[in-house]
Amino acid sequence: MFFTYEHSHCVHAPETFEKCLEGLPTWCHRLTSILVYLRHLPVTQSDCYVSLSLPTASVQHFRTKTVQNTKNPTWNETFHFTIQSQVKNILELKVCDEDNITQDDHLLTVFFDVSKIQLGETIQLCFQLNPQGKEELEVEFTMESSPDPPENIVTNGVLVSISSQNERDMNESVTLALNSLPIQEKITIAEDRTIDLYTKANEWTQGLCFRPRNLDARLGFDLCTDEQDFLQNRRKVVAAALKDVLHLEEDLQEHEKCHHRLSDQRRAVNQGQNPLPIYLALNVKDKVATKDFREWVEFTPYEVGFLKYGAFIRAEDFGSEFFMGRLMKKLPESRICFMQEEQPDLPEKPYEMATCMFTPTSGLSTALRDILTDRPAVSKYHNFLRGFQMHNEYIQQEHFTKWKDTLLDTSPNDLRGKSEHLELVDAAFFFETSCPPLMRPERKVDVIIHLNYTGGSQTLPLEQACRYFSEQGIPFPSIGLKDDENNLKECYMFDGADTPGAPLLLYFPLVNDTFQRYVAPGMSRSAAEMELGKVDISSFCSPYSTREVSLKAEDFNKLLKLTNYNIMNNENMILQALRMAVARKKQAQSQPVSQAQSSA
């Protein structure tokens, strides 16, 4: 049996990806895979076959014939793929035992990174399926140049799509080469007859051939133009306010109910008159624990996107259908209230994935996993990354590694390009703080005012965030609240002096301390007002418990007055943090001048 599948969409690896690079011509490679044999299966006589999947070359799964009643099946079957040489190509070899009555038994799966095969090389590999046993699967691979012409791509070093420069005339005729017809299959073509040939383009070929226009998604890790303009305007507004509040002698230098949609908030920030609202959600996988897979999704009035992939779309397009970065079907934008957050030794090619084997779990394990990973509130939206592929060297891209924090990040076939939907949950499923978008270096955050509204421990969310950013290598102030945990103050300042590049952090835990005795800073409560100072925020019966899905108007107003008081009562600490931030800015601006003078 000889099977051929051709697909010609290839990419080239540029040296830098700070911005999206378009129109990069690249050649394709032709991968030949020969399934030879499987030896010493640790089961009784079986009816084995191997299923092959290379998602970056085909949306289909292919398989060998079934070899009956043997522990040592031999196939010698050949499969061809035209691959995208610089896309991360992971071949999945799934060994199954055919069953005519029940579902086929999945014995094991081998994942192999085909970038290990050099162009012009033919190698025969034996995959050891059990370190303690003799089971092995032998496969022969050949990598050759493809005769297909080069194509142009768009990439930011993590995601890859086809460029608009590949536009083709949809009216041109198509010539079918005879050597592309299946071998050993009988095809009769009558003489002097007109043959009507009908073809059906699946979503993959439609995305490549019939959607050649420019991307509607933005690939890049910098801020969008709208947010950059906002920051320019906001700096002017904030500089004037700080000059007045901090009594500076010189100007700072630049270096109700929700019935609105996210994009509507642009009007409130278009001149920098208000702070930029940034929202956060977690993208998760069904039946996969949050600790095993999660991705930060950021929402602003301008864009919605993934920090890890550097892929963004306009806020008004969120929820619409995309394929390979192009808007396929525009859907109405959702209202906001419906939107549910020592260096190791490197291998010679750090982007290569190690070959690994997966053995399926038992039925009991699967049932337990389903129970433990069930999430009561998951919002599904069309996946705007659908159709994108992972770049061959994505794993060492600086911006990707900054947010790479789960095992599945090293399994490109499991990442978001082929999923139809995003599954978004509250960021609190991981930790109860929304700081990650603020830690993008492009935003140059100097001071974070963290208002905690978490029930339960008031120190745990901040400790979790501190530990997470430390593990990711993202500058964040060190936190020390252990000694105060049972008697928390209204405000803490962490200057981050021991962590270069970290912002100042003002942390307001949700506590009811002096508010019980004061209506406003310096204004004591009368006997009649003492009851208004009793805001239950920590007991089991608290109206603010996470068990409560809504708040009464009275309880909401009490919470609002409490948090407003805590901020006003710590005005001096806020001003101190702002002065420190201004001083750091001035020091940072003077250092290049001093260094230039000393070198001169």
UniProtKB/TrEMBL annotation:
GO terms for molecular function: metal ion binding; phospholipase A2 activity. It holds the Pfam family PLA2_B. The keyword Cytoplasm applies. It comes from the Eukaryota. The keyword Nucleotide-binding does not apply. InterPro entries: Acyl_Trfase/lysoPLipase, C2_cPLA2, C2_dom, C2_domain_sf, LysoPLipase_cat_dom. It catalyses: a 1,2-diacyl-sn-glycero-3-phosphocholine + H2O = a 1-acyl-sn-glycero-3-phosphocholine + a fatty acid + H(+). Residues 265-600 form the PLA2c domain. Residues 12-127 form the C2 domain. GO terms for biological process: lipid catabolic process. PANTHER family: CYTOSOLIC PHOSPHOLIPASE A2, PHOSPHOLIPASE A2. This is Phospholipase A2.
